[in-house]
UniProtKB/TrEMBL annotation, chain A:
It is a multi-pass membrane protein. It is found in: Endoplasmic reticulum membrane. Residues 59-82 are annotated as: Disordered. It comes from Drechslerella stenobrocha 248. InterPro entries: GPI_biosynthesis_protein_Pig-F (IPR009580). It holds the Pfam family PIG-F. The chain crosses the membrane at residues 12-31, 37-59, 92-119, 125-147, 168-187, 199-219. Keywords: Endoplasmic reticulum, GPI-anchor biosynthesis, Membrane, Transmembrane, Transmembrane helix. This is Glycosylphosphatidylinositol anchor biosynthesis protein 11. GO terms for cellular component: endoplasmic reticulum membrane. The lineage of its organism: Eukaryota, Fungi, Dikarya, Ascomycota, Pezizomycotina.
UniProtKB/TrEMBL annotation, chain B:
The keyword Oxidoreductase does not apply. SUPFAM superfamilies: Alkaline phosphatase-like. It comes from Drechslerella stenobrocha 248. One of its GO terms (biological process) is GPI anchor biosynthetic process. This is Uncharacterized protein. Pfam families: Phosphodiest. Belongs to the PIGG/PIGN/PIGO family. PIGO subfamily. It is a multi-pass membrane protein. Residues 824-839 have a biased composition (Low complexity). Keywords: Endoplasmic reticulum, Glycoprotein, GPI-anchor biosynthesis, Membrane, Transferase, Transmembrane, Transmembrane helix. Its main location: endoplasmic reticulum.
Length: 226, 1059
């Protein structure tokens, strides 16, 4: 399902780098005022993600998450540039749609999960909500774009039964990274960056990048639990 | 085997046919009935013999399993004992006493007499020494906020007289922060305040039973110099000094619910003695008030009762100074402070900072330059509590107690004009010389080389040289230099001693660690590495290991006589026996080597179980992770819930999928909800807000939490019931336990705590005595219901099963053929197993068969919950309900994902116990122990019950989890599954393995970090909690867990036969 023409390839490989770069560049202000900086960082992430899904993941209606090999082979043969342009427009539209879905449905879910895992309930609500928004856009949006609302697919996604690919690997990596990001918070190092939710965000972005690489390496594998 | 099964398979049918025959309208054909009776008789004989044989076999293998677990418990207890012996500090107790006529100085210098003062001219003939327990320094100095507005806290600005006098008439009084050496328990403090030496850690444990002090001390010196002592107050004193007081009025000290009896007693007996007519009956008077301390324990500092107590003490001080004469020294002090919640025992700054006030009408006190006013806090200036010992001794003309390490309080010797530096230097020299003499004897007692001059001795010799030089003795500045040299000697010596008595017995610690780690590995191997049924193997292993333990013990005993080791006979025998047992176990495993596989996990949940155990073990190496253990456990548990949600979605069967996913969500929600109830430890500040009590500075529960308790009483029984009705197991004893005992017990809990709050808050106008009696009666009823009736009944009751026989239309199949089997499929998910049998017109329904073992076995944690919840504060009781619900959810998660063989069940159960330890208002600190639990069902302390009540409160969640362990292996398991007992054993062993790993890790880190700054604040308390939990878990696993399996299997076997 990953398109192999050069623009798509550029976006595909550069977008984790861009995301990490943006986070790195804003890290100082993120530590100083997390909600503000998270809010400012959100459009960047959204733009990068839209560019990414619209160029790399092909038309969302044509592929339903079939094993990537077939899709990949089919695409280079596509000739007409005009058709490509129209398709890009359609892709951006469905990317926007999946963005709305991720923001509206993903954020509350992620927020709830974060609170259940121990995020503060009475304070730092904006911090946690924005953190949840980042996670759902980072991890959720590409998946929504690919699988829209197919129940069976989403059950596979939640039950970790999906064959791994870059997007799914990235999503799992982001979740795992966010989880690991909680580890340094209680340490008594008295560092400014230990404040909520800086480490979670850092872990999430790093995990996303690493997860994508992992997804690439382990493409097609299915997690076996026993 | 198959014939046996056939016979047993008929048991239910027989039971049913008996039932139906007794039913109405069934006595039709007499001849047929006779034939059936004959058949019944023969069958009964055959089956009875078989049942008995089976029962015998079961009891034997069960007994051996108990034996095996007992051996594990013994080994782990020995490991903890050996480690503790070496880790908790020891100090040699010297018998030497200071003599009045034998000053540490040379004979040419001041040689006093009893009349004028032994080593130094005395200042006072008489003294009144008053301890106001837990008088924190900030209670005594005016507290204003940054705008100069007086503090509004109930514990500030009430106790004013001492400060006012010390400011207005500085020569009459001094007020100073008075720093305690931890642990800050009264018993240990009294030892320090009379002997002048440092406590060793082990003293903390003996707070409940004071034992006589053998070392040289002030009280003994007073006696030896013929002074008469009058005492009134806290009965710890006569326990420490039996027979020393010529007048004594002791009062029970541990009843924290009673704010007034002790204080009234002191006031009643003190003032008559102060009357001039009675002045010859005493020389030194000691009074010990407890009201302030008890108000702190009961309500926390910020409560009107605290203000009232402090005002009462203020009036007392005014009365006292009016009543004493010129030659009497008055000392008023706290023995320790209190933490923000009003408790003490640990070593936080607030617990250490007591107040010291010395007063004399004569006006002898001076001031050090720069400290004219009483210090604002201890940072500005403070004295050690042990400094009081030499100061009092010299002021009263006594010899300084032999082992004293304290220095002089300079204000008492510098003179009212603050210029007597010469006197001060003499006093400091005297004290240093005595300390030096003590150090020499200590070195002799330890058989150390006296030729090597220690650093402190050198400082002392330098100071002596300065003193002898004489040139500096002409000016105050010169004296000041001499004084400073001696003081630096005393300070350095104290520092050295503090280090010295942190000397660990490394050999004993090492042996303890080896035994403990060995036992961890052995339990892990036993629980996770041995494949197949553990039932047959355990007996064999138990025999070998116990024989090995006996042989090892004997060997250790003999080593003692070979005098190779310095360890005592007992310790050698103990370590020998535990090492011998462990060794034989491992040698034993080689005989069934093919059955041993690696213990590394293969499935996601066993990876998670191992990961959680290792992560927790490792995190105790960092003080910050240890401090935040409560949050980390919540994080881990919620993660498990999330993962089990995901994995449940993998199920193909929609019913199972929904069950697993919904229970996972419930599990996560309850985890997070119960984490909202917490009591922060000092180190968590300022990132933590306590919710367990009404406010951060009180120890009273909020009235809102009472509502929660009523909610639990109403809503919780139906919730538990719903877990039974799913398998139609809400039958038989379930009605008694859930429908009756749980409802009544929880309602009584709620009523008890309502009465308690009414009593504390004085809501109603009922006399306290009546309220108390009502409270105690209710508590006794609940405890008897839960622990006596509930347990005894558990041994007798039938399984939660109902057999109904219905009349149906005659079916075409079947007939009178009694050989046809009632095919009750154990895997049938629905509750009913029906069999259409002879007579053909009847069908039998077994309700509750699907969860035959689990439903009965869970009744035990249920009844324990009722009792354990009573022992917790209201919020804790609600948290325990959440725990029980989480256990039920966990059981369903395990069942729906077929995880009953996975280690995740016992590990998560154990973590639930640890997590609720925190949500019931506990922390791994000494001051969070809720001693007042003792007085829930009674007014008096009666061992061992009082200790059990405190333990039930302290470790309630872990106890409840332990009692629930066997249910993990039994919940919804087929009743006649082969090897079920072996699986229960495996689950129990896994549970023990988890706790043993945690305890071993806390031990390892405490040993490794024994020089760490946070040892006493963080690592040592965590080690003690870990070790205590392991001992409890071991004992309860044997006594309750494994034993409950016996009743359960026999009860089920009675109906369906044993496998």
């Amino acid at each position: 399902m990953v398109e192999h023409h050069s623009a798509a390839q550029t976006v595909r490989y550069s977008h984790p780098v861009v995301l990490l770069g943006a986070l790195y560049a804003s890290f100082g202000s993120l530590v100083q005022n997390p909600p503000l900086m998270l809010l400012q960082l959100l459009p960047v992430t959204i733009a990068v993600q839209i560019a990414h899904v619209a160029t790399c993941l092909g038309s969302s209606s044509s592929n339903n998450g079939k094993v990537s090999k077939e899709g990949g082979k089919k695409k280079p043969g596509r000739p007409a540039a005009t058709k490509g342009k129209a398709e890009l427009g359609a892709n951006v539209l469905s990317a926007l749609l999946s963005l709305v879905l991720a923001a509206v449905m993903g954020t509350p879910v992620m927020f709830t999960v974060m609170v259940l895992l121990g995020a503060p309930i009475t304070t730092h609500l904006a911090h946690t909500a924005l953190c949840a928004a980042h996670l759902s856009i980072l991890a959720g949006m590409p998946l929504i774009y690919s699988y829209d609302v197919q129940g069976a697919k989403w059950r596979d996604i939640f039950s970790l039964k999906m064959p791994v690919d870059e997007e799914y690997g990235g999503a799992l990596g982001a979740c795992l990274g966010a989880w690991l990001g909680a580890v340094p918070i209680p340490l008594d190092w008295d560092r400014e960056w230990q404040k909520w939710p800086v480490t979670i965000i850092a872990g999430m972005y790093a995990g996303y990048a690493v997860g994508r690489l992992g997804g690439l390496a382990l493409a097609g594998r299915v997690a076996r639990f026993n | 085997m198959s014939t046996v099964d056939d016979i047993f398979a008929q048991v239910p049918r027989r039971t049913a046919s008996k039932l139906s025959r007794n039913g109405p309208g069934e006595l039709g054909n007499i001849a047929k009935s006779r034939a059936a009776d004959e058949e019944d008789r023969l069958f009964a004989q055959k089956s009875k013999a078989l049942v008995e044989q089976k029962q015998r076999e079961f009891k034997i293998s069960h007994g051996l399993i108990v034996l095996f677990f007992l051996w594990i418990a013994y080994t782990q207890a020995v490991g903890i004992y050996l480690f503790t012996r070496g880790f908790l500090l020891t100090r040699l107790i010297l018998e030497s006493k200071s003599e009045c006529g034998f000053s540490p100085l040379t004979a040419s210098e001041y040689q006093g007499s009893l009349g004028e003062g032994c080593w130094h001219p005395k200042t006072f003939d008489k003294a009144v020494i008053v301890i106001i327990d837990a008088l924190r320094y900030d209670f005594t100095v005016p507290q204003v906020d940054s705008d100069g507005v007086p503090s509004k806290e109930h514990y500030h600005n009430n106790f004013k007289t001492p400060y006012e006098i010390a400011v207005k008439n500085p020569q009459n009084a001094i007020l100073l922060p008075f720093i305690a050496d931890p642990p800050t328990t009264t018993l240990v403090r009294l030892k320090g305040l009379t002997t002048g030496t440092l406590p060793t850690f082990i003293d903390a444990g003996s707070n409940f039973a004071g034992t006589a002090i053998e070392e040289d001390n002030l009280i003994d010196q007073l006696n030896r110099t013929g002074r008469k002592i009058a005492f009134m107050g806290d009965d710890t004193w006569p326990a420490l000094f039996p027979g020393y007081f010529s007048i004594e009025h002791p009062y029970e000290s541990l009843n924290v619910w009673d704010l007034h009896t002790v204080d009234e007693g002191v006031l009643t007996h003190m003032f008559p003695l102060l009357h001039p007519d009675n002045s010859s009956s005493w020389d030194v008077m000691i009074g010990h008030f407890l009201g302030v301390d008890h108000a702190g324990h009961l309500y926390g500092p910020d409560h009107p009762a605290m203000a009232a107590k402090q005002k009462q003490m203020d009036v007392f001080v005014q009365d006292l100074i009016n009543a004493v004469d010129d030659d009497t020294l008055v000392v008023i002090m706290g023995d320790h402070g209190m933490d923000p919640k009003g408790d003490h025992g640990g070593e936080s700054q607030l617990e250490l900072e007591a107040a010291l006030w010395m007063y004399s009408k004569k006006g002898i006190f001076g001031r050090l330059p720069g400290f004219e006013m009483p210090p604002k806090d201890a940072e500005e200036r403070s004295v050690n509590q042990i400094d009081l010992v030499p100061t009092l001794a010299l002021l009263l003309g006594l010899p300084i107690p032999y082992n004293n390490l304290g220095g002089a309080i300079p204000e008492a010797f510098i003179g009212r004009e603050s210029d007597q530096w010469g006197n001060l230097a003499h006093v400091a020299r005297l004290i240093s010389s005595q300390t030096e003499r003590y150090q020499k004897s200590y070195a002799v007692a330890r058989k150390e080389d006296l030729e090597i001059e220690t650093r402190t001795t050198k400082i002392w010799r330098d100071a002596e040289e300065k003193f002898d030089a004489g040139s500096s003795r002409d000016t105050p500045e010169g004296w000041q230099t001499i004084y400073k040299s001696f003081i630096s000697h005393q300070k350095e010596n104290l520092k050295v001693c503090k280090d010295l008595w942190l000397r660990f017995d490394l050999l004993s610690m090492l042996l303890g660690i080896i035994v403990l780690v060995g036992s961890v590995i052995l339990v892990l191997v036993y629980a996770r590495a041995i494949t197949g049924d553990l039932r047959d193997l355990t007996g064999w292993l138990a025999g070998r290991s116990i024989a090995g333990a006996a042989a090892g013990g004997l060997a250790g005993y003999l080593v003692h006589y070979a005098s190779i080791s310095e360890l005592s006979q007992l310790n050698l025998a103990l370590s020998g026996s535990s090492l011998g047992g462990i060794l034989t176990f491992f040698v034993g495993t080689f005989t069934f080597w093919p059955r041993v596989r690696h213990i590394f996990p293969t499935s996601i949940f066993s990876v998670l179980a191992l990961l959680y155990t290792i992560l927790q073990g490792v995190m105790f190496a960092a003080n910050s992770f240890t401090i935040w253990e409560d949050r980390i456990l919540t994080f881990f548990l919620a993660t498990f819930g999330a993962l089990s949600f995901c994995v449940s979605l993998r199920q193909e069967d929609p019913a199972m999928r929904t069950l697993g996913a919904s229970q996972s969500v419930i599990f996560m929600l309850l985890t997070r909800l119960s984490s909202l109830s917490r009591l922060c430890r000092e180190e968590q500040m300022p990132y933590c807000e306590s919710t367990y009590y009404a406010s951060a500075t009180s120890s009273v529960s909020s009235p809102l939490s009472l509502l929660l308790l009523y909610l639990v009483a109403i809503a919780f029984p139906p919730i538990v019931k719903s877990y039974y009705t799913g398998t139609k197991s809400y039958e038989g004893p379930a009605h008694v336990y859930i429908g009756f005992a749980l409802r009544i017990g929880l309602m009584f809990n709620a009523i008890y705590w309502t009465l308690d709050s009414a009593d504390n808050g004085e809501w109603v106008d009922i006399p306290t005595v009546a309220l108390k009696r009502a409270k105690h009666t209710i508590a006794q009823v609940v405890l008897a219901l839960a622990f006596i009736a509930g347990n005894i009944l558990f041994a007798w009751v039938q399984p939660c099963l109902n057999i109904t026989v219905e009349e149906t239309a005659p079916s075409a199949t079947g007939g009178g053929d009694s050989n046809t089997q009632p095919r009750t499929s154990p895997h049938q998910p629905a509750a009913a197993a029906t069999s259409a049998q002879a007579p053909p017109t009847h069908s039998m329904t077994l309700l509750g068969y699907a969860n035959l073992h689990g439903s009965r076995s869970f009744l035990l944690p249920l009844t324990w919950y009722i009792g354990l919840a009573l022992l917790q504060k209201p919020l804790g009781g609600a948290s325990m309900a959440a725990l029980l619900w989480q256990i039920l959810a966990l059981l369903e998660i395990i069942d729906s994902n077929s995880l009953s063989d996975s280690p995740i069940g016992p590990v998560i159960l154990a973590m639930l116990g640890s997590s609720h330890y925190f949500s019931t208002g506990h922390q791994a600190t000494l001051s969070s122990i809720q001693w007042e639990t003792v007085f829930i069902p009674t007014d008096t302390i009666r061992q061992p019950w009082s200790a059990l009540l405190v333990a039930g409160n302290q470790f309630g969640p872990q106890i409840l989890a332990t009692v629930a362990v066997p249910t993990i292996a039994l919940w919804k398991q087929p009743a006649k599954q082969a090897g079920l007992l072996g699986r229960v054993v495996r689950v129990c062993a896994t549970y023990v393995a988890y706790h043993a790993t945690i305890a071993a890790c806390t031990v390892l880190w405490a040993a490794h970090l024994r020089r760490h700054l946070m040892l006493y604040r963080v690592f040592s308390p965590r080690f003690m909690v870990g070790a205590a939990v392991l001992l409890f878990v071991d004992a309860l696993t044997v006594a309750v867990g494994v034993m409950s399996v016996r009743w359960n299997f026999l009860a089920v076997g009675e109906v369906f036969g044993l496998t």
